[in-house]
Amino acid sequence: MRPVSSAEHRGSTLLQHEENEQIFRLLGSRCQTLATAVVQLFLTDPPDHSAWRRRDSGVLCLVKDNQRRSYFFRLFCLSRRQMVWEHEVYNTMDYKSPKPFLHTFEAEECIAAFNFAQEEEAIVLRNILLQKLEAKKRRSAGEFTALTPLHSPPPVVVQHGRLVTQPPPPPANTTHLPLTYIHPFSFEAVDKLDNSLQTEFLDLKYDCEAKIIFKQSGYELGWVKIMDTYPQLWGKTEPLLISFPSTYLVEKGFSSVVQLLTKQRNKLDICLKGDLRLNLTNIKPDIQALTEIH
Questions:
Q1: At what angle do helices 195-205 and 231-242 cross, to 10 degrees?
Q2: What's the mean per-residue pLDDT of the chain?
Q3: What residue stretches are annotated with the WH1 domain (predicted)?
Q4: In the predicted model, what is the mean pLDDT of residues 276-290?
Q5: Degrees (nearest 5) of the Cα angle 80, 83, 84?
């Protein structure tokens, strides 16, 4: 495949010609920027995602990567002359625009927001992205069912050029299963649960030892530690803990399968042999310790 020329890139109107050329060189020979803008990048912190944290600022590119056969958001720093952040555009991305200059979407383990320096660049990038997402959805229509995201972006207002989180409304009583089982000690509508679960749930609600376990270990590990004590509740909770936490991770799994099972390696058993799990894990191997063992 021939290299991408500068004429095929779309630069930012806020940058000088030399600055745009520098960004194009950082992209590499087989990547094309479909839209370029000057932005601030904000991310939320898990697990509650209730506030924005400024991650970085620089030049954002919507990149078509011909080698990896996908689209990416890539944020570049001109002074450091390097990429400082990257995120793949997945098929079911719900790209929102709560303000003309502010775009949000669900990223890996957080919510991401772009605060654009110029509204025109925000509009151009969003229109091109939505066109590409629509084309990807048409190609993969009927193959997969999208999961509902667990989090919504926190409400924001702009004050003196900064993103400020608005306080969320007070929580309402609900029998929605994730809230019931993830926060069992604050759930009040016990009478609305199935009769078979009410007694066990009340025992858990006033179990001081279980409260300490949840506080110290978090709800995921906490449930694992008390699953033998509350087997009926564990039966309801277990499917919630093993499900995919975001649409991004689902799409990441699909992309990993495509990368692993090539025409030359189409008979690999990537599930039983651990290839897929190794490709998706966030655990960093201790190479030094492994070499000492052998």
A1: 90
A2: 79
A3: 26-136
A4: 73
A5: 85
8 A C-beta contact, residue 184 and residue 204: yes
Give the Cα separation of 183 and 168 in Å (integer): 18
Which positions ≥6 away from 200 have C-beta within 8 Å?
A: 230, 232, 233
Highest mean pLDDT among 3-7, 25-29, 211-215: 25-29
Side chain identity at residue 50, one-letter code: S
Assessment of whether the complete model's pTM goes beyond 0.85: no
Question: Rounded to the nearest 5 degrees, what angle is found at the Cα of 129, between the Cα atoms of 131 and 60?
Answer: 160
- Residue intervals of the chain classified under CATH 2.30.29.30 are 6-165
Extract the tokens encoding 269. Answer: 């058993």
183 token code pair = 């926060």
pLDDT at residue 155 tops 70:
no
245 DSSP 8-state letter: S
DSSP 261: S
How does residue 82 score in pLDDT terms, banded at 50, 70 and 90?
Answer: very high
Q: Helix, strand or coil for residue 249?
A: helix
Give, in degrees to the nearest 5, the angle at Cα 98 between 92 and 99. 130
State in Å, rounded, how far the first CA of the chain is from the last one.
Answer: 42
Among candidates 111, 107, 127, which has minimal Cα distance to 119?
A: 127
Q: What contacts 287, CB < 8 A, 6 or more positions away?
A: none
* Cis status of the peptide bond prior to 47, with omega within 30 of 0: yes
For residue 200, the one-letter residue type is: E
CATH second-level architecture of 6-165?
Answer: Roll (2.30)
* Cα gap 278→271, rounded to integer Å: 10
Question: CA–CA separation, 232 vs 74, rounded Å?
Answer: 46
Parallel/antiparallel/unpaired status of strands 52-65 and 31-44? antiparallel
